[in-house]
Amino acid sequence: MSFTSVVDFSLFKTRREQIIDFLKKANSSLDNGAVIIFSDFEDERFVFRQESSFYYLTGVNEPGAVLVFFLDGRQYLYLPNYGGIRGRWTSSDIKIDNNVEGLAKKLGFDEIKYLGASVNSFSFNSIFSKEKYFNFLFDVENFLNNHENREVFTFLDLENNQRYFTQINMYKNLMDFYPDIANITRDIAPLVHHMRRFKSEVEIDSIYKAVQITNIAHDAAAKVIAPGRIEHEVQAIVESVFTQTGALRPAFPSIIATGKNTTVLHYTKRDQELKPGDLVVVDIGAEYGYYAADITRTYPVTGEFTERQREVYNIVLAAQNYVESIAKPGMFLNNKNEPEKSLNHLAIKFLEDYNVSKYFAHGIGHFLGLDVHDVGDNTYPLAPGDIFTIEPGLYIPDENLGIRIEDDFLMVEDGAVCLSFDLPKNCDDIEKLMKNSSS
Ligand code: GLY
Ligand code: MN
Q1: Residue having the nearest C-alpha atom to atom 5 of ligand 1
Q2: What is the CATH architecture of 10-196?
Q3: In angstroms, rounded to a whole number, what is the distance separating the alpha carbons of residues 307 and 281?
């Protein structure tokens, strides 16, 4: 099985238009407003992957770009000026050097412009200079001078600025040129994060494909797990399935953890041997069409759980089933102000009844989307269109025992639909799956 993703750029234009409509209504006294958002930059150690909110609004997987659109409806994309050199070095779809009008039309912009003077190189770093950003700065200055009552909208998200580290730094560069901008800048991260929470059909389809690919990878992992294997051998099988089936990359570093490592939540060293009697936590997710899956299973190295492992496993599974059954619109993933409706608080309560809540070392789940730990305001209740994980786990370092079970869910009117439903989950089915490998 293999999947191929096709990008429909009109979706991204529609999102920009929704933002324009929203901001116009919320700021009706303004003469005009500009949305200015900087993309990420590339690093030669990694294949470039766009910052997720920039991608959400453009569909453009190019480094060093700047998105500018105005409340009067005009929409522009600025790209670095490589002096015609980049095309010989990279396989990017975005080639500004020929047929600029055609590219603008395809991407849904009024115009695509060079940021400034040519850098005569295939790469463009984030050092901000007047020359490199000349055209962009000229247009920003025009906007500021031509309207008295204007505002600029961007992502500041200062509380959580890991997410927009590059964007915020680039915006600070802009403020160095025009210090007064600070007084008229508004953060639209909450607005875009709210839009990103509720998935359209196309997004659900991408996540479902990422889930299917991840299921195939789990099946392959289950079949290769055996005493004597090294954690990274399991990783190799998982990630080769991703590549074979059309996923561009893992949505996060694959967690393949055995023995005591099962109790390290984001373990990524992967250099330990699988030993009889131990477990292996396999927490993996493919990224397909820019969207993430995130599914965890815990396997016994020998293919058979011990009695103690089964006992703990069944508590984790019961906790997941319980949370799935109460996950309905109107509940919250994690909201300390509404503990009676908060899945995280109710999961802890459930585990307290078994006297094991002290071994539950993380939250019950997170939103899933363009990012594995996707954006979204936890104080806004779950609603149809949300996609999220339910992932209880118990971690007992003294026993080298860590067990996590994680599945991906779509919220609909009636409750949570499990997208990863066809992956074996209870102890008997996991043992059966692993037995099939050796026969
Ligand atoms: N799959 C890793 C995590 O949810 O943190
Ligand atoms: Mn997760």
Answers
A1: 266
A2: 3-Layer(aba) Sandwich (3.40)
A3: 18
Contact predicate 388/367, CB 8 Å: yes
Q: Look at the chain and count its residues.
A: 439
Show me where the domains of the chain are located. 10-196, 198-438
CB distance 149 to 33 below 8 Å: no
Asked if 32 and 70 touch (Cβ cutoff 8 Å), the reply is: yes
Angle at 123 between CA 119 and CA 127, to 5 degrees: 70
Per-residue pLDDT of the chain (439 residues), as tens digits, is 677 777 889 999 999 999 999 999 999 999 999 999 999 999 999 999 999 999 999 999 999 999 999 999 999 999 999 988 888 888 877 777 667 888 999 999 999 999 999 999 999 999 999 999 999 999 999 999 999 999 999 999 777 777 899 999 999 999 999 999 999 999 999 999 999 999 999 999 999 999 999 999 999 999 999 999 999 999 999 999 999 999 999 999 999 999 999 999 999 999 999 999 999 999 999 999 999 999 999 999 999 999 999 999 999 999 999 999 999 999 999 999 999 999 999 999 999 999 999 999 999 999 999 999 999 999 999 999 999 999 999 999 999 999 999 999 999 999 999 999 999 999 999 999 999 764 4
Q: Is the dihedral of CA 71, 72, 74, 78 positive or negative?
A: negative
Q: Which CATH architecture has domain 198-438?
A: Alpha-Beta Complex (3.90)
- With a 6 Å cutoff on the Cβ, whether 283 touches ligand 1 is yes
Contact 213, 7 (CB under 8 A): no
- From 218, 283, 404, give the residue whose CB has the most ligand 1 atoms within 8 Å, as the site to mutate: 283
294 lines ligand 1 (CB under 6 A): yes
Q: How far is CA 163 from CA 45, 102, 166, 339, in A?
A: 20, 32, 8, 28
**Parallel, antiparallel or unpaired: strands 286-288 and 279-284:** unpaired
**Ligand 1: nearest atom to the Cα of 284:** 1
* DSSP reduced 3-state for 244: helix
Bridge partners, residue 114, by sequence: 79
40 Cβ below 6 A of ligand 1: no
Distance 295 CA to ligand 2 centre (A): 7
Q: Is 371 in the pocket of ligand 1 (CB under 6 A)?
A: no
Q: What's the whole-model pTM score?
A: 0.96
**How does DSSP classify residue 303?**
S
